[in-house]
Structures are given as C-alpha cells and as structure tokens.
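SUBJECT: protein chain
CONTENTS: sequence, structure tokens:
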Amino acid sequence: MSSHAPTPADLSRLLDQEEAACRSLLNTLEDERQAVRSLAIEKLHAINGERLALLESLQRLAREADESLRDLAAGRGFSQPTSWQAVLDRLMPEEAGELRARRHSLIKAAESVREGLRRNGALVDAIRTVIDQALSAGSAAARERQGYGSDGRRTSMSANGFLYQRG
C-alpha cells in the first residue's frame, strides 16, 4: 500500500476488488462444472490455471486488506489487535455503514465460491464412482475368458484393463 494512512474508502476499494475476484472465481467454477459434465478434460488445465491465478489474487488482496485495516486502526488510535468487527464498531456510523455493506457482500460472494467448490467436488466424486463401478464390472467380466495359447490350444486367459489419458 502507499505511504499514507489508509482510509475507509481505501478499504472499500479493496473489498470491491476481493468481491470482483470472487465473482470471477465463480465464473471459473461454472466453466469447470460445464467441462466436467461434458467430459471436456482438455479444457480443465486452462481452467485450473485461471482458478489458481484468481486464488493467488484473492490471497494478495486479503493480506493487503488486513494490513490496511491494521494501519487504519493504528492511525485512528484503536487498540490492537484489530478485527474487522472491532474497527467497524469504532468508526463513524457513515464510514462503518458503507464498509459493513461491502464486507457483507464480499462474505456472500465467498460463501457462493465455497458452495461452487462443494458442488464441483461432488460432481467429480460422482463421475469417479461411475468410472470405478464400470471398471469393476468390466474387470469381473474379463477375468475368465477363453483364448488361445502360444501353442495354438484353447485355454482360459485373464485380461488386465487400464485407462490411458492422452495429452
């Protein structure tokens, strides 16, 4: 942050940036969900890269907001350690009201991200279960098959199965 003491307006801007990053992450999670549903595995690498960049941005913004909150509290002579709630309780009502609204909006966006992550995880788990069941059924059917040995005689043969991922 700059050398001046942060203001509530500075904190509002940081909260807005964090919320925008959360909204972008929600869009990325929707893209991921669509790619998984359509089994467009080739899209997942780019989507995961975008998600990682957004998560790193959110971490940076959260650290910056925490630092700004501490600096604002110190600049106003508030006791340490500080929390968002403690600072909001000590600010002027007009300053606190705007920050409360923005913080509440950010929290709602973060909860939506958490729900999106949960939904995507459940979808991947469901697909994994279907694949595991298919592999189990296929391997049971393939265990005892008749075939021909190297000497040309009919014999029982077992088959091994595996998945191969291209790319």
Residues 130 and 136 are 10 Å apart (CA to CA). The first strand starts at residue 145 and ends at 148.
